[in-house]
Structures are given as structure tokens and as C-alpha cells.
Amino acid sequence: MTDYNRLPGPALDRWDWQEQGACVTTDTELFFHPDNERGPRREAREAEAKAVCARCPVLAQCRAYALATREPFGVWGGLSEPEREAIVARQLMRAS
What we know:
Elements: H1 12-15, H2 39-54, H3 59-69, H4 81-95
């Protein structure tokens, strides 16, 4: 579950980056896997989502948001769920 306590306050200028995302005109289903999607089908969908992210002008902001809030689902900032989990786990290990 997303940890909303990690979010900064509700200032519009902190969130306007979302309107500039390359994904704004893309079907959100590309970024979130359906139930029971596995193997090559999931890999292909994630690769397509990451290709959208690769051309995104706000990739860094999106990635930082997803890592800071520990976004549990979907491709955010060019990272899949397991990739973000691994980064967060490394950060937690370094902090302890």
C-alpha cells in the first residue's frame, strides 16, 4: 500500500510535473499488470511501458515520487515493482 504520510504537502507546484509526463496520453493499463499476468506477456508490457518512460521529460520526478512513497504497483519512473522494491531495500540496509 502506498505510504501517503511520505508525501509532501498539497502544493500544486509540487505535483505539476505529472501533467508533463509522457504517459499522460497513454492508456494506464500499460503501466499496471492485470491479475495473473506472468512471463513473456508481462515482460513485453513492462518493456513497452518503460519505453514510454525513457522518453519522458519528468522521469526523475516520477521515479523520486515512486521511491519516496514506496508505490507498490505498476511501472513508475521507468522502474517495475521489483526494481523499486530492490532499491528501497538497499536504501533501508544502508540506513541501518
